[in-house]
């Protein structure tokens, strides 16, 4: 059966150098259980059809509220995916997240009803994302290949093999009527910007002049930025090591080096020996702001996966306690510090509690609190589809509780650095201002709100920094 034995392998096209209302994004139809986990399609593991089904499964899981990294881990295991297939599934799933508003609107225009089961809809989202690359990005596959492989993918799934003709019809119609369909779809904000409407509104309210560039930055591909461990190497020497390895890079911060193109960490010189860590240039501002000196007692209160903990220990010989409420994520702090050859006292605990504390005040506290993560959507394009408007308020309430609790653990004259990866003032500046008033805290110089940017010499995520000192 030719349908079941496609010979096409995953070879993306070489890259050059350089109306009907759309469905709501959280579909209102009931999410039925579907054979997506525990199901391995009878397709060659190196075919695009196999990768499309894997990515479609991730889109379906997202509709159930599952974050993309967890959805990917589930499908990799269920599909027994090879390294090559994992790469292809991940690439398509991330493209689908960045194009979900647009492809949902297109499906709403072309399908008579919301595709069932959700994984079938996910297959259309993924195939359309491949057919309709964002402006300026080359298409990764020939259009006829995408259509052919999407139809094969549908045919290979027992729950929607019957819909393969519909998949073929929708994708071919998109090819034929692309311009008029896009003209209709793009009248709607979520399709135009690829964010939920509430997110677009919140960004416009907070940044009346910059909202468009902020939304655009959030759809860009994030750079891979490294932090050079100054205990082990200087930035100039490390740049030379990268050049020797044939990896183009430039310095974008005191210890930050941005790679021209992302590579697997296994290929990064010195990664396994702790010479470098992967960390956004904006996140690398945290540890130096703490003004650390040897011998200080330091608390990293929301520490996982440990990016900033590692940086703190690279800068000074401090007595670090790192806590996080998520025991699984805390294991990653141990792994990361182990790779760097550094150590800290670790505790799985809520930063709003004191049960874990020995009562000895800290000289420095880093509060990198949980937030909507609206400033790091270029790295996590699924976040916008998972968050609800009400999350901002709930997370801001928890952060206030955390900050009030941590303040009691700080010694007089000590410093507390409040960090979020949010763009919303309710979680950042408004929170900082209210905190300073509640506690009569002295506010020291800190960057405040950093908007996400991918400018050549200054590339960072959207982060917020406020530094407080306790009166002596
Ligand atoms: C922004 S991330 C921290 C990133 C980390 N500082 C780094 O640089 O790698 C926020 C962390 O807060 C943790 N968290 C959430 N609620 C918490 C709470 N109530 N107490 C402590 N940690 C919490 C989450 O598990 C998450 O790991």
From TrEMBL:
What residues does S-adenosyl-L-methionine bind to? 302-308, 324, 368
Q: Respond yes or no to whether keyword Transferase is given for this record.
A: yes
Question: GO:BP terms for this protein?
Answer: methylation
Q: What class of enzyme is it?
A: transferase
Record: active site: 421
* Span of domain SAM-dependent MTase RsmB/NOP-type: 214-471
- For region Disordered, the annotated ranges are 1-25
The EC number of this protein is 2.1.1.176
Q: Mind listing the UniProt keywords for this protein, alphabetically? A: Methyltransferase, RNA-binding, S-adenosyl-L-methionine, Transferase
Q: Where is the composition biased (Low complexity)?
A: 7-25
Q: Which InterPro entries is this protein grouped with?
A: MeTrfase_RsmB-F_NOP2_cat (IPR049560), MeTrfase_RsmB-F_NOP2_dom (IPR001678), NusB-like_sf (IPR035926), RCMT (IPR023267), rRNA_ssu_MeTfrase_B (IPR004573), RsmB-like_ferredoxin (IPR054728), RsmB/NOL1/NOP2-like_CS (IPR018314), SAM-dependent_MTases_sf (IPR029063)
Q: Which CDD domains match?
A: AdoMet_MTases
A molecular function GO annotation: methyltransferase activity
Similarity comment text for this entry: Belongs to the class I-like SAM-binding methyltransferase superfamily. RsmB/NOP family.
Name this polypeptide is given: 16S rRNA (Cytosine(967)-C(5))-methyltransferase RsmB
């Amino acid at each position: 059966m030719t349908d079941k034995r496609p010979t096409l392998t995953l070879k993306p096209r070489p890259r050059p150098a350089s109306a009907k209302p759309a469905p709501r994004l959280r579909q209102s139809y009931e999410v039925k259980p579907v054979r997506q986990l525990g199901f391995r399609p009878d397709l060659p593991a190196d075919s695009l059809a196999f990768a499309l089904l894997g990515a479609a499964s991730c889109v379906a899981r997202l509709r159930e509220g599952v974050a993309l990294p967890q959805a990917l881990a589930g499908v990799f295991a269920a599909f027994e995916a090879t390294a090559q297939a994992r790469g292809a599934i991940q690439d398509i799933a991330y493209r689908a997240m960045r194009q979900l508003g647009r492809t949902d609107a297109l499906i709403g225009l072309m399908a008579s009803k919301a595709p069932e089961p959700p994984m079938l809809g996910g297959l259309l989202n993924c195939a359309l994302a491949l057919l309709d690359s964002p402006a300026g990005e080359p298409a990764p596959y020939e259009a006829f290949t995408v259509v052919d492989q999407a139809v094969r993918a549908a045919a290979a799934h027992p729950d929607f093999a019957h819909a393969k003709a519909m998949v073929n019809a929708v994708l071919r119609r998109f090819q034929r009527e692309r311009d008029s369909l896009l003209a209709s779809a793009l009248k709607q904000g979520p399709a135009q910007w690829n964010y939920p409407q509430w997110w677009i509104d919140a960004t416009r309210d907070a940044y009346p002049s910059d909202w468009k560039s902020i939304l655009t930055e959030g759809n860009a591909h994030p750079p891979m930025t490294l932090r050079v461990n100054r205990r082990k190497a200087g930035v100039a020497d490390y740049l030379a090591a990268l050049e020797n390895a044939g990896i183009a890079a430039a310095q974008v911060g005191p210890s930050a080096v941005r790679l021209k193109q992302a590579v697997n960490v296994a290929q990064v010189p010195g990664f396994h020996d702790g010479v470098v860590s992967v960390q956004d240039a904006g996140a690398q501002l945290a540890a130096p702001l703490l003004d650390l000196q040897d011998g200080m007692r330091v608390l990293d209160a929301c520490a996982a996966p440990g990016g900033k903990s590692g940086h703190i220990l690279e800068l000074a010989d401090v007595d670090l306690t790192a806590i996080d409420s998520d025991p699984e994520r805390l294991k990653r702090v141990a792994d990361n510090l182990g790779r760097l050859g550094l150590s800290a006292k670790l505790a799985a605990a809520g930063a709003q509690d004191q049960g874990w504390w020995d009562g000895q005040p800290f000289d420095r506290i880093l509060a990198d609190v949980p937030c909507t993560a609206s400033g790091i959507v270029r790295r996590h394009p699924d976040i916008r589809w998972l968050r609800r408007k009400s999350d901002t308020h709930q997370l801001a309430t928890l952060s206030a509780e955390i900050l009030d609790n941590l303040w009691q653990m700080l010694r007089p004259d000590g410093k507390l650095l409040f960090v979020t990866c949010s763009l919303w003032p309710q979680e950042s500046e408004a929170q900082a201002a209210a905190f300073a008033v509640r506690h009569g805290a002295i506010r020291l110089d800190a960057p405040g709100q950093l908007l996400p940017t991918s400018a050549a010499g200054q590339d960072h995520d959207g982060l917020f920094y406020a530094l407080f000192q306790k009166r002596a």
